[in-house]
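Hypothesis: this fold can be encoded by more than one sequence.
Test: take the structure tokens below, design a sequence, compare later.
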């Protein structure tokens, strides 16, 4: 999936030097390597904004994205320094200021060609000069629950001319208006000043369709400045290409109205961009078949120098899922262990009902081995599945009441197949209608053949969603990126499938507060699983410790 990245900054530190004015900042955006042998790729650089410490760049960068594959970008800010006639270099900006990043799905919806001419523009230069006009185009976007204008194009300035004819330009419709030809656009004309504090000459609101209609009818659009007429803009050229259009002549040749163009299908990125919260629950297998964790080689053996397979899987998958979880709070539960002589199939891991971040998940996992558990059996998923489904439904209902959206991912880590496949399949069928995806990762060398059935149960039957995905850890142990890509690949389709089955459209895109990045000295990175059998034994880990198993609330 292709994404678009646009950036602006505020309150940057001036590095131009004493008596040398204000910095002329530009940004270089680089996609960083995330796998061994991969090289960083420079996506490009923005235009230079002269004499500004709060630059609003119009350059839009594109990059490919797929869930489960980490994608990191570095944004380096520079002050352009002229040396000689044509040589320019960048001086890296000092610590301070904030970068704002907007990320949206690329629509791949054709291009827009346009050419504007100003007529009798109001001079704002004063009595002894003539304005040097240029224009900007901004699109209306949702930002933190409100609306703002996001600059997407800036023309050249034409010196000393109140009847300027700017050069013809071409833009991707995706960057200009998200493919929506009726999206509000703001056209603003400014008098260019070397200081960077450009004087407004007038503005008007329109859309791509509005510009096309003005061009076809040879009509001009009126500029206003402080509610006063300040000139007109003639649309010499305005046409689109690369998308299907039905002309008026074609319509007249038909005997019936042409069928409406089907709306584009909403995607995972549309829902996430609209603020859909992705909640996570982690469930860990503590059955006896994992071996005695006090002995090296056991699947739960804790080694200060290396991670076991459970820890590796949690580190890889939870770190990705947390990117979509704003509060970073994750319930961590266990199953298959005895407390007080009773086998529990859904108990709290750690001293609190929810762990904070990946470190909290790891701490909760390690704390279990000091809680007096007896590793037992059988392997039962149904209780953690039903708990996750209940929480998922409650979270979505609470979110909907606030005009928001929520979805849940249950990550189950296990060393063997479930003891009762039929009961597990029936449970999956019962909870299929909830806003939930289930990711099962099999660790160790057990035969997971029976688990593949759960991956496909009810898939497509009577229009039901396939909500479960199984992956064997050992098949991807060579690369955490391979594991996350294989494990999380189906979640986007499952999420959009749930909301679309309920007739729930994505919310308007928002610019999240966590996309504000404080400029630092270093590069800033954004980051956009058979029956147990008689051989399974009970393993007593400790005879005492803190018993926090009863602290978990499944609701």
């Amino acid at each position: 999936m292709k994404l678009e990245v646009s950036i602006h900054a505020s309150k940057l530190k001036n590095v131009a030097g004493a008596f040398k004015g204000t910095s002329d900042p530009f940004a270089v955006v680089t996609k960083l390597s995330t796998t061994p042998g991969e090289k960083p790729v420079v996506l490009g650089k923005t235009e230079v904004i002269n004499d500004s410490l709060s630059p609003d760049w119009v350059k839009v960068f594109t990059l490919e994205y797929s869930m489960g594959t980490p994608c990191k970008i570095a944004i380096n800010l520079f002050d352009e320094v002229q040396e000689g006639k044509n040589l320019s270099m960048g001086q890296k900006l000092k610590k301070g200021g904030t970068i704002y990043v907007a990320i949206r799905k690329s629509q791949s919806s054709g291009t827009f060609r346009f050419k504007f001419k100003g007529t009798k523009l109001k001079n704002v230069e004063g009595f002894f000069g003539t304005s040097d006009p240029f224009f900007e185009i901004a699109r209306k976007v949702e930002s933190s629950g409100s609306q703002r204008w996001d600059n997407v194009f800036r023309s050249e300035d034409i010196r000393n001319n109140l009847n300027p004819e700017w050069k013809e330009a071409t833009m991707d419709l995706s960057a200009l208006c998200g493919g929506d030809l009726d999206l509000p656009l703001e056209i603003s004309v400014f008098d260019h000043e070397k200081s960077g504090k450009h004087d407004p000459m007038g503005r008007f609101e329109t859309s791509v369709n509005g510009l096309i209609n003005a061009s076809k009818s040879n009509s001009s659009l009126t500029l206003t400045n402080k509610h006063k007429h300040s000139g007109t803009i003639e649309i010499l050229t305005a046409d689109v290409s690369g998308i299907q259009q039905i002309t008026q002549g074609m319509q007249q040749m038909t005997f019936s109205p042409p069928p409406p163009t089907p709306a584009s299908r909403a995607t995972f990125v549309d829902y996430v961009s609209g603020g859909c919260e992705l909640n996570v629950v982690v469930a860990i297998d503590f059955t006896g078949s994992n071996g005695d964790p006090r002995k090296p080689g056991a699947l739960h053996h804790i080694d200060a120098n290396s991670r076991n397979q459970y820890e590796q899987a949690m580190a890889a998958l939870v770190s990705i899922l947390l990117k979509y979880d704003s509060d970073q709070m994750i319930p961590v539960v266990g199953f298959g262990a005895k407390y007080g002589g009773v086998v529990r199939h859904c108990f709290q891991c750690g001293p609190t009902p929810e762990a904070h971040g990946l470190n909290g998940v790891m701490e909760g996992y390690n704390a279990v081995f000091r809680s007096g558990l007896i590793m037992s059996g059988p392997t039962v998923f149904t209780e953690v599945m039903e708990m996750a489904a209940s929480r998922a439904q409650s979270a979505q209902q609470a979110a909907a009441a606030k005009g928001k959206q929520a979805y849940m991912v249950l990550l189950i880590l296990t060393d063997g197949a479930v003891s009762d496949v039929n009961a597990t399949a029936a449970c999956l069928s019962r909870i299929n209608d909830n806003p939930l995806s289930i990711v099962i990762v099999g660790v160790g060398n057990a035969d997971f053949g029976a688990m593949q059935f759960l991956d496909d149960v009810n898939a497509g039957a009577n229009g039901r969603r396939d909500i479960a995905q199984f992956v064997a850890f050992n098949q991807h142990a060579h690369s955490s990126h391979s594991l996350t890509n294989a494990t999380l690949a189906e979640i986007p389709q499952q999420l959009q499938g749930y909301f679309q089955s309920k007739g729930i459209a994505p919310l308007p895109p928002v610019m999240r507060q966590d996309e504000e990045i404080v400029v630092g000295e270093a590069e800033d990175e954004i980051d956009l699983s058979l029956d147990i059998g008689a051989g399974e034994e009970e393993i007593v880990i400790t005879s005492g410790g803190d018993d926090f198993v009863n602290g978990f609330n499944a609701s």
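The first strand starts at residue 2 and ends at 10. The mean pLDDT is 80.
Hypothesis status: open.
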